[in-house]
From TrEMBL:
It comes from Terracoccus luteus. This is Dipeptide epimerase. One of its GO terms (molecular function) is racemase and epimerase activity, acting on amino acids and derivatives. SUPFAM superfamilies: Enolase C-terminal domain-like (SSF51604), Enolase N-terminal domain-like (SSF54826). Substrate binds at R25, T153, K178, S313, M315, D338, D340. Belongs to the mandelate racemase/muconate lactonizing enzyme family. InterPro entries: Dipeptide_epimerase, Enolase-like_C_sf, Enolase-like_N, Enolase_C-like, Mandelate_racemase_C, Mandelate_racemase_N_dom. The active site is at K180 (proton acceptor), K285 (proton acceptor).
């Protein structure tokens, strides 16, 4: 019988090759907690809980404490021989603590990874099994060595800098650009126009406001964008997360699709968005919803309700992005997803896992998430182990 033997939580700070700037924050590092789970046969599963104070409210210390004091004791010693055993372990993770979605998502991904390795299959295939078992749509095609497509984010900046960056990202092979706006409503339209002029008509442009506008600003700016004919694909989270009624108010008054991100964490939020008609699309993130199964259920429910979907992430490394990409591989989104966060890393802290090739995200063909170990030396990463 295979059992869960140890759970560890390791903090690491990974430098970015370019500062990441939004309406909420500016960062030059990805600060995160990497969770590992080792079984009695010596296999190790990997997951990740990023620190994003402005969105999830979780810190490195908080996520580490959650894993060490609550989640680790809840699963250590459990059997992990079949899908029923995995279900028991995953349910323990979700029921042991309230909220703490990033910490729970990290252990959830690590358990999926560990189980997938034991079965000689991918995490995407395991998630696909949950979807098929729930009566939801089952994607066609194989999952081994799959290639996904991602957009790439343009950090908030002035028009000239954004135009230069946009040209560089297109040269890197990206066909969909996600612009961070919302820092200055008065100049947002001009900056989008500068990017459109720089890249031409064939490159997709989507906007992420990160809660940066008031209701009235959102309507004014989105209408101006539409009137200017700038070919904006969608506008993400134009108002503060708590103002779902305001999101619906904006959506009723603008001609461009509106996507909910920070307003949609889990099933309750999604049902409210559907009921109010607050968004045309939703952005599902594991650090918001807490598990791969919940993420799959959110995508399925959104599709059932006629909403568009993407899967995104926080600023995470190749570990967290591997789990997010596995979700997309199992339950395809309606639009190109937002899986570029690990692309920003100057180096990966782990060996193996996903890789980037232009706009393509390459999932490994081996079992699990394909992560084989740490690359960064212990001296470079302060640790807290459970």
């Amino acid at each position: 019988m295979t059992r869960i033997e140890t759970v560890t939580a390791t903090t690491t700070s990974v430098p970015l090759h370019t500062p990441f700037v939004t309406a909420l924050r500016r960062t030059t590092t990805t600060d995160t907690v990497v969770v590992t789970v080792t079984d009695s046969d010596g296999r190790t599963g990997w997951g990740e809980a990023p620190q994003v104070w402005q969105v999830t409210g979780e810190s490195l210390a908080g996520a580490t404490a959650c894993v060490r004091t609550m989640l680790s004791p809840a699963v250590t010693g459990l059997a992990l021989d079949d899908r029923d055993d995995l279900d028991v372990a995953l349910t323990r993770v979700q029921r042991t603590v309230a909220r703490n979605f990033g910490a729970k998502a990290a252990l959830d991904a690590a358990l999926h990874d560990l189980f997938a390795q034991s079965q000689g299959t991918t995490v995407a295939a395991v998630v696909r099994g949950w979807v098929a078992g729930s009566g939801g749509p089952t994607p066609d095609g194989g999952l081994d060595g799959i290639r996904l497509t991602t957009d790439v984010t343009l950090s908030a900046g002035d028009a000239s800098a954004l135009a230069d960056t946009a040209r560089a990202r297109v040269a890197d092979g990206f066909a969909t650009l996600k612009m961070k706006v919302g820092t200055d409503a008065a100049t947002d339209v001009a900056r989008v126009a500068a990017v459109r002029a720089a890249v031409g008509a064939d490159v997709g442009i989507r906007l992420d406001v990160n809660q940066g506008w008031s209701r009235e600003e959102a309507v004014e700016v989105i209408r101006a964008l539409a009137d200017a004919g700038l070919g904006v694909e969608l506008v993400e989270q134009p108002v503060v997360a708590e103002d779902v009624e305001g999101l619906a108010w904006v959506r009723e008054r603008v001609p461009l699709p509106v996507m909910a991100d920070e307003s949609c964490y889990g099933p309750f939020d999604l049902e409210r968005i559907i009921r109010l008609g607050a968004a045309d699309l939703v952005n599902v993130k594991l650090a918001k919803c807490g598990s791969l199964r919940t993420g799959a259920a959110l995508l399925h429910r959104a599709h059932e309700a006629g909403l568009g979907t993407i899967v995104g992430s926080m600023m995470e490394t190749h570990v967290g992005l591997g789990a997010a990409a596995s979700l997309v591989a199992a339950v395809p989104t309606t639009l190109v997803s937002d899986l570029d966060a690990a692309w920003w890393a100057a180096r990966s802290p782990v060996a193996g896992g996903i890789a980037y090739e232009g706009e393509a995200v390459l999932l490994p063909s081996g079992p699990g998430l394909g992560v084989t170990g740490w690359v960064v030396a212990d001296a470079d990463r302060p640790t807290t182990r459970a």
